[in-house]
User: Fold this.
Amino acid sequence: MKKLWSLSTTVREAERILPFLRVLQEMEGEEFDEIGQVRYQTILIQNRLYHPTKLSTEQLRYYVTSKDKMSLGEAKELFEHMRKNSSELKKDPGLRGRVSVAALTKMGLAIAKKSSGKVVITDLGKAFLDDQIDIGDVFLKFFLKWQLPNPGSKDYKYEDGYDIKPFMGILHLINRVNEKYRGLGKEPKGISFHEFNIFVPSLINYEDIESYADKIIELRQLLFGKKKDNQKKIFESFRLKFVKEFLGSENPEDVLKTINNMKEYGDSARRYLQYTRYFHVRGFHNHLDLELQRKIEINKLLSEYSVKSESFSDESKYVEYMGSLVQPELSWENLADLNKIIIALIGNIEELKESTTGFVFSVPDLSDQTVENLKIIIVNLRKERRRLQEHIEHQASQNVENLESYIEILENIYSFPEKRPIILEQYSALGLNALNDAIKISPNYPVGDDNKPTSTAGANMPDIECYYEDFSSICEVTMLTGRDQWYNEGQPVMRHLRDFEEKEKEVSYCLFIAPKLHRDTINTFWTSVKYEFEGAKQKIIPLTITQFIEILKFLREFKNNNIDFDRHKLRSLYDKVIILTEGANNSEEWIQKIPNAIKSWGDKILI
Assistant:
């Protein structure tokens, strides 16, 4: 029976792949039988990489201790709690461990199956662990090899219509839609997220690419010129008809399940695809298109790589292929094509330089270079381009009109349901850039070639690092508002700040921004600021998004009134919030005083 294809909805954020792999590395050489599966899940819990639900208050505290990880005994207790609350785990205790490891085995980073014997980290996995290959290249190698059907999975069968390499299919689908749209005299824009959710997880055969491109154009024409309410009805009707045709069934249960899965599977696939850096998001986080800065590589892929699945004599051959560090060969890794890529990159950097001042760039010497040297030059050029893009962003942030747009987007953040966490990180970083004389504002979220975030920052680092001439700070943001804010952000934020303090060896602050502040988070920060964390007080400034916007609005007034604003004025606000703890009797009183502190600070500067 036909069904949508999916990547992983268990490891939802790609940044978690590496930490999950590090835990599995601890078990290399061990059997991945039921005992091994339970052990793996338990160690994930111990390292706070997995969070069971329905925990007691005391159990929740295992996630907010100052230690790097909880004790093995605590982790075993949480796994047992999870097992007792799951009818599936009662019958099959190893199920959760198998699900958690699935993304690693699917990507060829490891071999961890009961039927395969002992746990093995592949050459690709070892290179990833040793930082010899970055996450973008890991995902590219995976996607170029992953196919449906494949000997490593019984979920997709040739006789049910599966015959495709999904990554290649998506490249061709977007390319054909762009070509057809251009043929209609319209500007290509990739495919919308709604289109992606319908047509990508259901693209199971390479022979359907052309008809799917036609269907996308048909849907756009049906929606064109219609009012929003009518567009929604047309879209839902089109999707319903498409799903019934895809399934070859009108069974209401199957149809509803497929429609519900489309968004979840589509969101997951899109996040993973963006890590390859061969796609970028157009518009305001609502269209996925081919990455223009990788045009040479993409053209090679479209013309030289098969979309059709390959044949393997047995599962071991496929597993060996997926875990290979050197396969598949990238056809552009030759002197001629690498030089073309470098020339295009230099041209892109030179073009970007024209829009700014004060950026120094040295053109590399390309004479008598080997293939490996050229690959290194390309990596370094892309780093230079990001440095230039950050320089341009900083200069652009000084413009009042851009500052207005940051304020507007943050004020309307709930209008963007799919991308709120990314938007909050991105526009908090831009807002901090607007506060002028930082040496560097360095967000830790991964970016594509356009310097736009592909996801939020990883869990083991601050969201944003801010460097000023005589102090430094980190900024942590979250869209969480309930008690999960406390155990996801409370202790980790304080650990991040302490690690940052020790690294910078100077006065360091932490700006914490959330839609609203949960009482348990406030109490945790109160203790750290007023008393101590790991033996010393910390400087944490907890703000709501609204309060951060108020600071930006004051900045707008300063600029409109030609008032110079520098790091000293910003630091005076941070210190003002910290000093409030001295006159407050409890954490709630402290937080209640912050809005007036911001107002009096801004009014004083405006006088």
Residues 164-308 form one domain.
